[in-house]
Amino acid sequence: MSTQKLSDILSQLAASSSSSPQKITSLLSSAKRELLTLNALIPTPTTPPQVLALARQTLEAGALLSIRLQQPDAFTRYYQQLSPFYEMPGESTHQDNRSQRSKVTGLYLLLLLTKGDYAGFHTVLEGLEVESAQQGKGLESDEYLS
């Protein structure tokens, strides 16, 4: 399978953001099947950066859709699937302009607070602080996390 088919599905997903949830869910399922054929659901150092970016975009779209559909358990699963992509060493796949990392992480932090999981909230937040300090930035500069 090619990355072009996955790119096309992601373009359709972006264009149909106001469509019915069933149509979006169907497109998302097709995108995840493509990820399986590309062996890209779990990032590895040998996975091409373009495929990693497409996989991350697919999972971020799923996470944001699950919030729109008020499915916190599905959102949590998507967040957990995204974590390895966000933690990839070397060339980060989440530094490009299309990444929704801050938005997804901010929503996850809000979910943890609403569930009363204060320990989980602080664990994620402290990890973000360490990461931003290593990059020479502060969390205050992030639109969704400040």
**Low-pLDDT segments, ≥5 res:** none
Task: Give the number of helices.
Answer: 6
Bulk shape: globular
Helical residue percent band? 55-70%
Strand-residue fraction?
under 5%
Mean of the pLDDT scores? Answer: 87
The number of E-state strands comes to: 0
Structural class, from helix and strand content? mainly alpha
Order of helices and strands: HHHHHH
Q: State Rg.
A: 15 Å
**What does the main sheet amount to?**
none
Terminal CA distance reads 40 Å
Describe the structure.
With 146 residues, the protein is mostly helical. 66% of the residues lie in helices and 0% in strands. The chain is built from six helices and no strands. Helix 1 (3-15) runs parallel beside helix 3 (49-68). The mean pLDDT is 87.
